[in-house]
Design a protein that fits this description.
Helices cover 62% and strands 1% of the residues. With 281 residues, it is an all-alpha fold.
Length: 281
């Protein structure tokens, strides 16, 4: 039964990964002035600071279904199957044969893997109703965090509204635990993780991290619920950012690092293996 549950979580995660990536593109396209065009055509007129919260723009009417951003043709349902369609089409549009890009396949695989990891934190036979409530809220929080990670990775922004939603879901996720055993540790964890990134932002005046990163860290610290887990997440976020982005930064000296994806990665690792990390104390 547990294996079937994990398979179901993988499929569900892949579907949500496809959906979130689509919504990220739609939100950005809808934020442009007129028509569907590349965001970078407006970059010179309305630059956006790395990691900064988004600036509201005029919305545009978008097609109700997915389209190719190159030829504007509406995609068939069989070209929207998560992971499978991308692999069959080799990352290209069926109509114009131009490259779709890697954002879709990465988000689908990453979200599917994340859902499987979260699935291992729950036992179908022994889980209580209160634990199921916490699990569902954590899934909703994770979806919000992945949306933020994709958005920050693609456009270097962390939308303020989504950050607020993440904080709210994080607050809801600790309620089941507080009902059974009240503790101040979740609040200390949030203050520690969020405070560190807020301090980095204030000291560097936005050069090291953006003004949205500390809110993201606040939500993650609150959801993790333990200062030790926040320190683990801090290490994972910075280590993974240095490891993955070092070749890029070395090649392009002025390249800026978007911390959103690495903060979300750190949350997933710290949350999934929370019992192991806490046992190390």
């Amino acid at each position: 039964m547990q294996i079937l549950f994990l398979i179901f979580m993988f499929i569900l995660g892949a579907a949500f990964g496809s959906f979130l990536c689509c919504q990220v593109r739609r939100r950005e396209l809808g934020a442009l002035s007129r028509g569907i065009r590349s965001r970078y055509e407006d970059a010179a007129r309305s630059p956006v600071k790395t990691g900064a919260t988004s600036v509201p723009r005029k919305s545009t009417k978008l097609p109700p279904r997915s389209i190719c951003l190159h030829c504007k043709k509406q995609l068939k349902w069989y070209d929207n199957i998560p992971i499978i369609s991308w692999c069959i089409l080799r990352g290209k549009c069926r109509n114009c044969h131009k490259k779709i890009g890697y954002a879709e396949i990465i988000s689908e695989l990453a979200t599917a893997t994340t859902f499987v990891m979260l699935g291992t934190t729950i036992n179908l036979e022994t889980t209580t109703i209160l634990e199921w409530v916490k699990y569902v809220i954590t899934i909703l929080l994770t979806l919000t965090l992945i949306f933020l990670a994709i958005y920050d990775g693609m456009y270097g922004e962390l939308p303020t509204a989504c950050l607020i939603v993440a904080v709210l879901f994080a607050a809801l996720s600790i309620v089941p635990n507080l009902v059974s055993n009240f503790s101040i540790q979740p609040f200390l964890s949030a203050a520690l993780f969020g405070g560190i990134y807020l301090g980095l932002y204030l000291v560097s005046k936005g050069k090291w991290v953006g003004d949205g990163d500390w809110l993201l860290a606040l939500a993650i610290g609150l959801a993790l619920g333990h200062p030790w887990l926040s320190m683990i997440a801090l290490f994972v976020a910075n280590f993974s950012a240095c490891l993955i982005m070092y070749p890029v930064v070395k090649k392009k000296k002025q390249h800026q690092i978007y911390f959103g994806p690495f903060l979300v990665l750190a949350f997933i690792v710290a949350y999934t293996f929370s019992d192991f990390f806490i046992s190390m104390i």
